[in-house]
Design brief:
By secondary structure, the protein is an all-beta fold. It is built from no helices and 16 strands. The mean pLDDT is 82.
Length: 138
């Protein structure tokens, strides 16, 4: 499939004072539809002072998704901000959210979205340090 993103790796970055921290999405310009990346690794990043999401995996909400992201690891990241969400995975299969440190967001870890997209397949959310939230931890 043209435009398909596989093996996306985001490792060891420092992201400061941005509206959006680390965002992973994909669009097919030929059909104006969203294609989900797969085999995604987001490890060892530091995100500070984002406004919206520190780490986001999803799609353009104006278009219904046609592919489901899969084989996702979000691990050992540090997110310190007053963002709306620390780590948000809008939908996916085979997702692991492990050993992250989240502090100060409105919502720590958000699974699913407001458009009835729901997680499927196996999900592991384990050993995350979540603190200082005004709304929900997970």
């Amino acid at each position: 499939m043209e435009g398909w993103s596989n093996h996306v790796t985001v490792i060891g970055n420092l992201v400061r004072n941005c509206k959006k921290g680390i965002w992973i999405t994909d669009r097919d310009p030929a059909t104006n539809s969203t294609q989900a990346p797969s085999k995604i690794t987001v490890v060892g990043n530091v995100v500070e002072d984002s406004e919206e999401e520190d780490i986001f995996l999803g799609y353009d909400v104006s278009v219904a998704p046609i592919y489901i992201p899969s084989d996702i690891i979000i691990s050992n990241n540090v997110c310190n901000s007053s963002a709306e969400v620390g780590i948000w995975v809008a939908y996916g299969e085979g997702v692991s959210v492990l050993g992250n440190s989240l502090n100060g967001q409105d919502i720590g870890i958000q699974i699913g979205d407001d458009n009835n997209q729901k997680p499927s397949g196996s999900w592991i959310i384990n050993n995350n340090n979540i603190r200082g939230f005004s709304n929900h931890g997970i």
